[in-house]
């Protein structure tokens, strides 16, 4: 679950590096993915984002950019759009730069995003700030996909996913284990009693079943947060060229099981009861199909535990996801 930021703004407020003291009046960009909890960026981050783009990238401090921010919710990073008459940028900066972990996390995302850009998988990274860990990217022309848009473009989306999985990873990437992620979130839930005991037992059953089925899987480059809001459509510039799909938000990108990415997208599209078409389009083997089917309830549990930990407005969402998990576990084999 991560920030969504490549959508078109409908309202902006002009702000320069010299008048950032009034930056709290800047409005969030409309139509961005809305989370139940948001807060505006700190004025320091708005100033730094402007400086990174107009001074350090463009080399012209006289430029007066328009600075806006996106509702990035539970992401540890602020997502800021900087627009000049000739260029558009997206800047990510740690929301709490005083915390060393926040800086390291942002630096890690910057490294992964820059690496993905070099392989044509995501937007270009134009500058990385070594002190804050923040980074500036090109702002892509286009928009993220909706669930319906993905369903109408499944072959192209599956080709993008296979491109990610067949790209040789850098040696410095870590291993991402979704089972461990869900287990850790479940432990937090147990400590805070944020979920009913029958749901906790169901998740424990899902974890156990998944561990047995996916043991010994290959480790390849994975996105690890591959869902509709992290798939970006660039419209063709002319009628003689095809639209282009690419991924965004590589903060979770590491080595993993490619079938986790596939299962996660299946759940995002609410196709957990009918995954066969996506499995076929991806070209899964019989062994991979078993792993996809094991990961599907785990993906639902992943989202449900993530929501339960945050409580508040997320509680109902967590309950809905757990109902879907139970339907998969209790039901017959999906089509």
Description:
The chain is an alpha+beta fold and 335 residues long. Helix content is 43%, strand content 13%. The chain has ten helices and ten strands. A five-stranded antiparallel sheet has the order 1-2-3-5-4, with helices on both faces. Strands 6-8-9 form a three-stranded antiparallel sheet, covered by helices on one side. A hairpin with a 6-residue loop joins strand 1 and strand 2. Helix 5 (178-192) packs parallel to helix 9 and helix 7 packs across helix 9 (286-310). The longest helix has 25 residues, at 286-310. The radius of gyration is 20 Å and the shape is globular.
Strand order of the largest sheet: 1-2-3-5-4
Distance between the termini: 27 Å
- What is the helix/strand order? HEEEHEEEHHHHEEEEHHHH
The profile of the biggest β sheet is: 5 strands, antiparallel
Report mean pLDDT, rounded to a whole number: 86
Brief characterization of the structure:
The protein is of the alpha+beta class and 335 residues long. It has ten helices and ten strands. Strands 1-2-3-5-4 form a five-stranded antiparallel sheet, with helices on both faces.
């Amino acid at each position: 679950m991560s920030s969504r930021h490549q959508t078109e703004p409908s309202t902006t407020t002009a702000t320069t590096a010299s008048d950032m003291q009034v930056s709290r009046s800047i409005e969030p960009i409309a139509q961005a993915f809305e989370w139940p909890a948001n807060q505006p960026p700190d004025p320091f981050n708005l100033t730094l984002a402007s400086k990174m783009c107009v001074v350090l990238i463009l080399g012209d401090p006289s430029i007066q950019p328009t600075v806006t921010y996106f509702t990035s919710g539970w992401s540890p990073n602020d997502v800021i759009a900087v627009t000049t008459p000739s260029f558009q940028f997206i800047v990510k900066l740690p929301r709490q730069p005083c915390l060393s972990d926040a800086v390291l996390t942002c630096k890690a995302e910057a490294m992964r995003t820059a690496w993905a850009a070099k392989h044509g998988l995501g937007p270009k990274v134009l500058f990385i700030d070594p002190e804050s860990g923040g980074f500036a990217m090109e702002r892509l022309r286009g928009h993220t996909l909706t669930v319906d848009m993905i369903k109408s473009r499944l072959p192209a989306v599956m080709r993008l996913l296979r491109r990610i999985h067949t790209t040789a990873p850098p040696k410095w990437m870590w291993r991402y284990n979704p089972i461990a992620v869900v287990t850790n979130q479940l432990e937090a839930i147990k400590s805070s009693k944020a979920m009913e005991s029958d749901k906790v037992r169901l998740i424990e059953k899902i974890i156990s079943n998944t561990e047995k089925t996916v043991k010994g899987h290959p480790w390849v480059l994975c996105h690890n947060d591959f869902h509709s809001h992290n798939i970006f459509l660039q419209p063709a510039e002319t009628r003689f060229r095809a639209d282009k799909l690419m991924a965004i938000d590589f903060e979770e990108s590491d080595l993993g099981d490619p079938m986790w990415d596939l299962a996660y997208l299946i759940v995002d599209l609410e196709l957990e009861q009918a995954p066969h078409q996506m499995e076929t389009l991806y070209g899964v083997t019989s062994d991979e199909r078993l792993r996809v089917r094991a990961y599907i309830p785990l993906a639902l549990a992943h989202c449900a535990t993530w929501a339960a930990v945050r409580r508040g407005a997320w509680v109902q969402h967590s309950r809905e996801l757990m109902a879907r998990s139970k339907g998969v576990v209790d039901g017959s084999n999906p089509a």
